Amino acid sequence: MVTLADVAQHAGVSASTVSYVLSGKRTISAVTRERVERSIAELGYHPNAGARALASSRSNIIALMMPLRMDMYVPVMTEIAIAIATHARSFGYDVLMLTGEEGPEAVRRVVGSGLADAMILMDVELEDARLPLLRQSGRPAVLIGLPAETTGLTCVDLDFAEAGALCAEHLAGLGHREIAVIGEAPAVYERRTGFAERTIDGLRARARSLGLRVLHRPSEGGYAAMAGTLAQIFTERPDTTGFVVQNETAVEPLIGLLRQNRRAVPEDISVVAVCPEQVAVQGSVRLTSVAVPAREMARHAVEHVIAKIEDRAGDQVVLLEPELTVRASSGPAPVSG
Amino acid sequence: MVTLADVAQHAGVSASTVSYVLSGKRTISAVTRERVERSIAELGYHPNAGARALASSRSNIIALMMPLRMDMYVPVMTEIAIAIATHARSFGYDVLMLTGEEGPEAVRRVVGSGLADAMILMDVELEDARLPLLRQSGRPAVLIGLPAETTGLTCVDLDFAEAGALCAEHLAGLGHREIAVIGEAPAVYERRTGFAERTIDGLRARARSLGLRVLHRPSEGGYAAMAGTLAQIFTERPDTTGFVVQNETAVEPLIGLLRQNRRAVPEDISVVAVCPEQVAVQGSVRLTSVAVPAREMARHAVEHVIAKIEDRAGDQVVLLEPELTVRASSGPAPVSG
DNA sequence: CTGAAAGCGCTAACAG
DNA sequence: CTGTTAGCGCTTTCAG
């Protein structure tokens, strides 16, 4: 293994000089710098991560805590995770992947050991068990999601209330008057991750001011469950002409079942989805949708957490502005009668 | 920050004793051990990762290199990654997530810096650019996938040839004589990840000995592309009664299109998929399938890589036995005529 | 603009 | 069964 001392010797300078060439924390003459850099290249030197961490008490690692239940939202979560890792690298940070498995204890372990300089938590619940430990640790952290109490925390999330509102607005603008919302599985509401509630709350508020009638039905995904939900909706509200879906696994079944029921999309029924771009685009119909901006969430999370590590930022709540993209699944409400 | 020295002092023992209590590398009297453990708990001590890595030249971190193109196979890859992280933790290892973005250079960086004790590479291509660096580094590594040249490497993968063979066998056993294979997108074959070729090779070989006629068509996923592929297949081979699909994004479109074409599954047409369990189970028809055993691959990868770190194992190629699960998409070939 | 030297917190001989 | 001690490779004062 080639060490900093080896490089120093090879270059005919002191160890500290090499260190400073690497960190750029003090001015080095061009000649010296070049000599050192040549030696580094020739010897194939790589600074030892452990030694560096010990001496500087900085690991240059960000811990990323994945959701507890990896059964849902896999694509978005994956996209966010990858984007976080990629973006973090561009700032010189690596990302350590923690699974939900280990539970809140992971926070203590990672933070206590100095393994990571900071944490990013995904899939935050309203009363998340990890938060007390986090606050108490005083370590830099960013949450993706919005817990009940955000004081002392930095959070990044989509403004789901506004996302819901946009859906209502779009359908209202097309002349729809009766709309049905197909929500996440009941389990999601029970877990209290918050985003599902925020969506329907925002949607309802805007719907009210626009004079829309709204029926909300949480639903499991898959064809069988959706068939039931759909039948129920049309029995209860036969004049429903607009659907809003917020459930990745319900999207394609919904479209398929409408087709089976001889309801043309978008001629008879308009559908708006709140889902990842990919899901909206790859199905049998290109869906009008509000996307979950995974990359942008990742970007904000990384940049804020690094700002915190470097003591350049305090706590704040960042709600990303949703955007509705019109595609082939929504159109003017059919002329009633 | 509370250090090992603090614990030692608090417990009235030497630093090394505390260290040995932690590592279990020498016998400690029950009294001493207890006193030390109490002190650790009372002070809330956590060993410093950097110091540990420096002194022991072991980081207890495994680097996991994700695929270059995260556009495909997202669910399987994610499942494998999560399973690797979870399983690694149970052996006291953390997992560092490297994206494909950084390229082969990441191998050099991680290995050179001692950041990780070993690497696991996902989505290995036949002539993978990371392999030369890996071999030359001499660091413990496990590949998920099978490159062209495996000497000096440990590889874990599904036996895709046998998976293909099982599909042929299953359809032949049901009396099918003409089968069509819908493969991955042409790009996948061009990338030379190998698994797609191995599947079709294995399938063809078995088909030959069973007297099956096979038509192989790589295809993009999605409805539009599949509609074209399907039309072509039925034009070329109108008597096709069995389908094998190896393309996550083509599965649901295939089923939907067959239904649209008034071909009943499984009465007229049988479909066998090579895909993740989840995809096989959650669509509109429960598919007979050969699953990609993500968990098991993760388990093998982790256990082998740790065995290598601890110098308890050499190189080897592990091909997991595929299993075909019969579900609702396959049945006896229709009586011809 | 550069060196010398003192640790960072832990592990692992070596010594008893 | 336990203690003493010499580093691991780097960063960062302090000194010039």
From TrEMBL, chains A, B:
Q: Per its UniProt record, what InterPro entries does this chain match? A: HTH_LacI, LacI/GalR-like_sensor, Lambda_DNA-bd_dom_sf, Peripla_BP_I
A Pfam family recorded for this sequence: Peripla_BP_3
Matching entries from Gene3D superfamilies are given as:
3.40.50.2300, lambda repressor-like DNA-binding domains (1.10.260.40)
The protein's matches in SMART domains, at most eight in alphabetical order, are given as: HTH_LACI
Assigned keywords, A-Z: DNA-binding, Transcription, Transcription regulation
Show the coiled coil region(s): none
Domain HTH lacI-type span(s) in chain numbering: 2-56
Name the record gives this protein: LacI family transcriptional regulator
